[in-house]
Amino acid sequence: MTEVPTAARPPETRVSDAGTPGSAVVDETVSEQAVVEETFSEETVPNEAVPNEAVAGHGAPETAPEARDGAVPEGHDIVPEERVEQPGPRREPKVGTVRPRDGAGRTSRGEADAVPAPGTADPATVVHPRVWQRRVAVLRDQGVRRLRWVVAGVAVLVVLCVLLLVLHTPLLALRNATVRGAQHTGTQAVLAAAGLLDDPPLIDVDPGTVAARVERLPWVAHAVVVRHWPDSVTITVTERVPLGSIARPGGGVAVVDASGRILAWQSAAPPGLVLDAPVSPGPPGAVLAPTARPALQVGAALPAPLAGRVRDVAVDARGMVTLDLGGGVSAALGTTAELPAKLTAVASVLAGAPVKGPAVIDVTVPDEPTVGPPPPGARR
Question: Terminus-to-terminus CA distance in the chain, angstroms?
Answer without folding.
Answer: 172
